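Q: My hope is that you can spare some time for a protein that puzzles me. Underneath my words sits a plain record pairing an amino acid chain with its backbone structure tokens. Those tokens are not coordinates but codes from a learned vocabulary of shapes. Thank you; the sequence and its tokens follow:
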Amino acid sequence: MITIPHKAKQFGVFIIKLLIVTAAFYFIYDQLTNNDQLDWKKFEILLNEKLSVFGVVFLLAFSVANRFLEILKWQNLVSFIKSISIGESTKQVLGALTAGIFTPNGLGEYAGKALYFDKKKTKKIIFLNLICNGVQMILTVFFGVLGLFILGYTNYALALIVIALIVWAVSFFTKSIKIKGYSIEKLFVKLNEIPKEIHSKNNILAFCRYLVFSHQYYFLFLAFDVDLPYLTLMATIATVYFLASSLPSFQFLDFAVKGSVAVFFFGKLGVNEWIVVFISTLMWFLNVVLPVVIGSYYVLKFKPKWE
């Protein structure tokens, strides 16, 4: 058996980390410079008209709160395996976010977080991350369907409810069927192994995170003088977020996907499409780009267990 020298391993890991960070920044740069939806001159004019120190601090506070709630969620879920500090949770969440930016629907985050733990805990970490993201997705679906009802898309909302009921019924009657040793019944057994206190805290934090994210969107529309009733605006935001999150995409394309869906729904309400595109871009910049910049530091500082 050939043994790879320790220094060679270290160099190999450094190259991989450098490639991840370089790729992340390249994808961000590429989207900002080559996206046809963005007119930077109009963007600059709008920002100069609306920019203020208070406004910037106010919006950044939402972004910090958004990621901090995600960090608390992860710290809470991982406590089922071991206790970690907020600092350690921050490192894992932001580092994994950076690693997952160019993978479909952020799948790289699962592997990214697992790397911070022993290999024998990989399945548990992936499962906990699935719970972390799953609860957030359930809230997104719930409020999205509610938004469709409020906006008058009743038939679409009812169709989604019927589909959900069919999926639930099929899952219920096939829960004992095993595929490669896994079944829905086993999934619920694993879920019940986690203390109810952890589940409850995870649900509360996920709900708070949804409120923070959606209201950051809301206040951006207010900042750009979009005059719509609160309920209509929030329902549209919930619908856009739900439908955009349901589409397969990459994190670095997030603003393009959400922007396209948002232009369609907000366009029906008479909102200028440039304003919708700019707001979607700002949301992406504040909630993906900035955390990835910080996460890049953690990726470069990452040390495998064998080092």
The chain has one domain: 15-33+49-301.
